[in-house]
User: Which sequence fits this backbone?
């Protein structure tokens, strides 16, 4: 019972850790001078890219969602770079050079971010290990001795 | 336990103890994280992003002077001597909070002290400086905020220290206090001057 509970807790931890990386909503905040897209393909690409970039001011919103002044400016900048023919990795690189890795919702795997990437997997494996291992120990055929209490 | 004890016969107890210990450790870990988070939350500037520009060449710029909009100041004009650049706007309440500290430091004339007026109306900016004092050696105006993106500026106030070779040495996001001046800015400036 306790073994199951331990496993459940560990699994829950893994699920919670994984779900915090959930994708943000797509809605774009109001902009006094709306961005002009050349076509819907560009608009789709822009919205997908902006949803992957974090607003540097508000930090818990994506660039697409945020109504902060800097988010307006950065959206305009991103669209300008797209119009110059820059690729998504180039645009991300542009922002990382200026604002740091922080702007990426999916940062590159590196010394500082490996826990972010693999932490949930480690928790999941720990849970799986407990599920596998504990019942084997707990369920061994040896009956509980009658002198159990005397040990204490 | 004596050495004559019968072969291991309490795996059940062992498993329970182990499970208990693991659950306890898990929750102690969670509590420690929570405690850490709560302690960190009290820190000023907790949300400030570390600038990737530190140790790198300052981005080139060419911006008009606030008081003489037909004259420009560029990074090249500032080369040779270190300078401090303070980003502010008349729309920014925090800037008013730090302004007396900024002024006290600027008036010591330790270093060239550039005011970077961000996304402001020219009249508002000039009125603000007349009202709250103008300690800057130069004031440049970034009206559309385009240059600010190159500098990784995402609001005001922000303050940079750039050395004589044009390398960004230090940055602070948020209002400067006397404590930050004494403990961070002045030591960073001494280091820059010693390295010249």
Assistant:
């Amino acid at each position: 019972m306790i073994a199951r509970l331990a496993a459940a807790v560990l699994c829950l931890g893994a699920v919670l850790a994984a779900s915090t990386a959930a994708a943000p909503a797509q809605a774009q905040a109001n902009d006094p001078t709306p961005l002009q897209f050349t076509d819907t393909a560009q608009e789709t690409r822009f919205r997908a890219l902006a949803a992957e970039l974090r607003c540097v001011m508000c930090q818990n919103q994506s660039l697409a969602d945020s109504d902060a002044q800097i988010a307006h400016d950065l959206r305009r900048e991103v669209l300008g770079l797209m119009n110059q023919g820059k690729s998504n990795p180039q645009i991300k690189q542009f922002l990382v050079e200026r604002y740091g890795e922080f702007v990426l919702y999916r940062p590159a795997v590196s010394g500082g971010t490996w826990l972010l990437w693999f932490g949930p997997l480690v928790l999941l494996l720990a849970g799986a290990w407990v599920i596998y291992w504990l019942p084997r120990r707990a369920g061994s055929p040896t009956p509980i001795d009658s002198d159990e209490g005397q040990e204490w | 336990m004596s050495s004559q004890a019968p072969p291991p016969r309490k795996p059940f107890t062992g498993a329970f103890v182990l499970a208990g210990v693991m659950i306890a450790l898990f929750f102690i870990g969670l509590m420690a994280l929570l405690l850490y988070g709560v302690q960190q939350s009290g820190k000023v500037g907790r949300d400030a992003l570390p600038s990737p520009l530190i140790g790198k060449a300052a981005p080139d710029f060419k911006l008009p002077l606030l008081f003489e909009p037909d004259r420009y100041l560029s990074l090249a004009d500032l080369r040779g001597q270190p300078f401090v650049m303070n980003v502010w706007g008349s729309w920014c309440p925090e800037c008013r909070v730090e302004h007396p500290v900024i002024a006290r430091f600027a008036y010591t004339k330790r270093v060239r002290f550039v005011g970077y007026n961000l996304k402001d109306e020219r009249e508002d900016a000039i009125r603000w400086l007349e009202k709250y004092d103008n300690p800057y050696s130069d004031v440049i105006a970034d009206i559309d905020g385009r240059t600010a993106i190159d500098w990784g500026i995402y609001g005001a106030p922000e303050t940079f220290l750039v050395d004589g070779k044009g390398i960004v040495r230090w940055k602070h996001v948020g209002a400067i206090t006397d404590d930050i001046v004494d403990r961070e800015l002045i030591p960073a400036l001494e280091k820059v001057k010693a390295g010249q």
